[in-house]
Amino acid sequence: MKFKLASFIIICLASIALLVSDLALGKTQTLVIPGNAQGKAIRNAYVDELLHLIFKKQGLELDIEYNRESMSQGRALKELAEGDVIDLNWSVTTREREQKLLPIRIPIYQGLVGWRVFFIHRQKEQMFKQVMQAKDLRPLLAVQRFDWPDYRVLLANNLTVEGNISYDNMYKSVASGLADYFPRSVLEIVREKKSRNSRALMIEPSLLVKYPSAYYFFVNKNNKALASLIETGFNQAIADGSFERLFQRYHGEHLKLLNLEKRRVIELQNPYFPAIPGQH
Prior knowledge:
The structure is a single chain. This protein is α/β, with parallel strands linked by helices. Helices cover 41% and strands 20% of the residues. It contains ten helices and twelve strands. Strands 5, 8, 9, 10 and 12 form a five-stranded mixed beta sheet that branches. The protein has a three-stranded antiparallel beta sheet with strand order 3-11-4, sandwiched between helices. The two termini are 35 Å apart.
């Protein structure tokens, strides 16, 4: 029995090695990922450059093709699980997603997607200065999309959340006073503020909400060769410092503007985050 098990493991490892070798011999790897109707338009400049860096570490040129059909996040993940249209996507991880797909468990945003600051109305700044712990947020109304993982996290912590508002109307609901706050990742809120021409909106300056969360690359469960290729190249980029330099170039300045070290931290639980020994 031990001999059969050992033989099986050796055969599996050899098969993966051969598949990875085949990819490398091709020199150019094509990936189809979800995109919009503009075809080759870059969906996310940071992730696009990160993927090219990962494949370059493996001696490969990368050609990213964007699927022309417009897809919601849920639809894109479903297509990836079926394995007929999409090769790769990136998403906040959950237990459910890791059951259906194969994750590369290296946080592409260094785990900071679970660090949240708020858009609020300027007239409510003093009210938020009185918030000292999670229970102080419970009488206040947050907005999130019902199909975002963050929505369930806030509900799990007994916070009041409205989930049936479109993305653009979330900003409007805060600016009009219908909602009290719109939690956003520390990685995106500064950029979003610059793109919103609203005098009523401001970034709340005193609070930082944290909960365990990470964006991973996901591939189809049967595509172990691609997962291995990405994991190896990603770890090489971490080891030689090129990943950190890329991350800081895209996000470092915005993170500094938020003065995160001076904020009051409110820790939330995330019951949907997969427990992984030795997680980054």
